[in-house]
């Protein structure tokens, strides 16, 4: 444990609940998809399509929640809990307002949205039902994100983990009841799945609200959700908007890459889909370390312990590299058997095994990029991360993928090679930025006694 740091802000204490939460969410998400497939293949298509839409729209309120989370950890590190508390309250209010607007649009015009996104006509009735009900609950997703992010950045990563685990289990049980007409539930098919999704979010939001009200030293009261500090919110947005742009880049370049893969053929698209499932188990480990590191570095930075933050980043990166590399190697060695659990198609398995070999190169690059990128975000250097993402994701990950995969005919190997190059390029640029210590020299002097000096957040 790092000398002098609060036990709840150590890397391990922060990382393991995040990993358990993300792992079980992924596992239960897979179970959820399998259960929806019992309704029909069309139902699976509508749920998958709608979730892509929901994930893209989430970037609108995640921008506020993510920026607020970093500042909350910084302020707590600087012993300025009242500021942290105010920032947390505003993040919930603003995220909820954005989520409410999105919910209203999805509830009122589901078919119009589906048509704009080229949803096939035969899926329109199902899309109308699912988007209006599940999409109408996006306001709950917004406040859940704000609650969870604020709570995690106080150092309590266990609380959101327990809530999400419990609610996902409830969701799967309710899905079972609605799909099969069991446990006293009516047999409502996809409508029941949408209702189950909405009900699960209501439960999660209620439990997280109670937890949030007690997340700080002084209990938060409901009238305080009307408070608004323009100066503090300005700091949230200065850090948050580049995070939103960065996330949007990733979402839309991934969608573009999927269209390139679809152009190659059904076998390649299936192989990549199965690869996503296997690769996610490597990604979850790296993501858990990277998110834990972001909270830890923001806390240390706020406490003016910049040298500790600098060293902690490299320590976490090396630990993460060792873990994800071993994990990727194990998956590669078991590749044929694992892929055989999904399909008997020899061509798909052969393509998948090749990609698992390339995954041995991808995962270390992704870990370096996530660790150093999150560390830079934690000290407020979010614009730098945004700029390199805009350039590399669009030019290398997306643009070069089309050239190598489609134009030159290298197929999935060419596309995957470009994805690897993108991760290492962004990782290298982030490494240079972190090593330069520019962020350290720009740090404001944040008094530990709760004075009024400027925030530890910086602009790139």
TrEMBL record:
InterPro entries: MATE_fam, MdtK-like, YsiQ. Keywords: Cell membrane, Membrane, Transmembrane, Transmembrane helix, Transport. It is found in: Cell membrane. GO terms for cellular component: plasma membrane. The chain crosses the membrane at residues 53-74, 86-109, 129-147, 159-178, 198-218, 239-264, 284-304, 316-340, 346-363, 384-404, 410-429. The keyword GTP-binding does not apply. It is a multi-pass membrane protein. The keyword Membrane applies. CDD domains: MATE_like_8. One of its GO terms (molecular function) is antiporter activity. This is Putative MATE family efflux protein.
């Amino acid at each position: 444990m790092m000398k002098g740091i609060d036990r709840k802000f150590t890397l391990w204490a922060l990382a393991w609940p995040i990993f358990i939460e993300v792992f079980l969410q992924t596992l239960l998400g897979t179970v959820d998809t399998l259960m929806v497939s019992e309704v029909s293949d069309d139902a699976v298509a509508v749920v998958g399509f709608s979730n892509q839409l929901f994930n893209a729209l989430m970037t609108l309120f995640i921008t506020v929640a993510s920026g607020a989370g970093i500042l909350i950890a910084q302020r707590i590190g600087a012993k300025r809990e009242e500021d942290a508390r105010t920032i947390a309250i505003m993040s919930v209010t603003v995220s909820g307002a954005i989520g409410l607007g999105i919910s209203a649009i999805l509830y009122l015009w589901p078919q119009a949205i589906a048509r704009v996104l080229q949803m096939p006509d035969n899926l329109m009735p199902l899309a109308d039902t699912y988007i209006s009900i599940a999409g109408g609950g996006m306001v709950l997703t917004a406040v859940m994100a704000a609650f969870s992010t604020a709570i995690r950045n106080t150092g309590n990563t266990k609380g959101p983990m327990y809530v999400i685990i419990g609610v996902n289990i409830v969701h799967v049980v309710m899905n079972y009841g609605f799909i099969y007409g069991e446990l006293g539930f009516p047999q409502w098919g996809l409508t029941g799945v949408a209702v189950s999704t909405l009900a699960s979010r209501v439960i999660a939001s209620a439990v997280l609200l109670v937890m949030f009200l007690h997340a700080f030293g002084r209990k938060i009261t409901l009238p305080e959700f009307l408070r608004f500090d323009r100066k503090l919110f300005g700091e949230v947005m200065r850090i948050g908007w580049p995070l939103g742009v960065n996330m949007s880049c990733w979402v839309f370049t991934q969608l573009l890459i999927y269209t390139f893969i679809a152009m190659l053929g059904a076998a390649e698209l299936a192989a990549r889909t199965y690869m996503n499932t296997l690769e996610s188990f490597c990604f979850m480990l790296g993501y858990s370390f990277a998110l834990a590191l972001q909270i830890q570095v923001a806390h240390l930075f706020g406490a003016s312990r910049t040298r500790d933050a600098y060293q902690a980043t490299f320590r976490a990166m090396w630990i993460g590299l060792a873990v994800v590399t071993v994990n990727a190697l194990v998956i590669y060695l078991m590749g044929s058997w694992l892929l055989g659990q999904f399909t008997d198609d020899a061509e798909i398995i052969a393509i998948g095994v090749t990609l698992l070999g390339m995954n041995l190169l991808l995962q270390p690059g992704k870990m370096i990029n996530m660790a150093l990128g999150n560390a830079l975000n934690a000290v407020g250097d979010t614009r730098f991360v945004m700029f390199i993402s805009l350039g590399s994701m669009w030019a290398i990950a997306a643009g070069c993928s089309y050239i190598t995969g489609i134009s030159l005919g290298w197929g999935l190997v060419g596309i995957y090679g470009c994805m690897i190059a993108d991760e290492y390029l962004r990782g290298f640029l982030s490494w240079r930025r972190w090593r330069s210590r520019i962020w350290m020299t720009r740090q404001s002097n944040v008094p530990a006694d709760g004075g009024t000096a400027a925030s530890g957040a910086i602009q790139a």
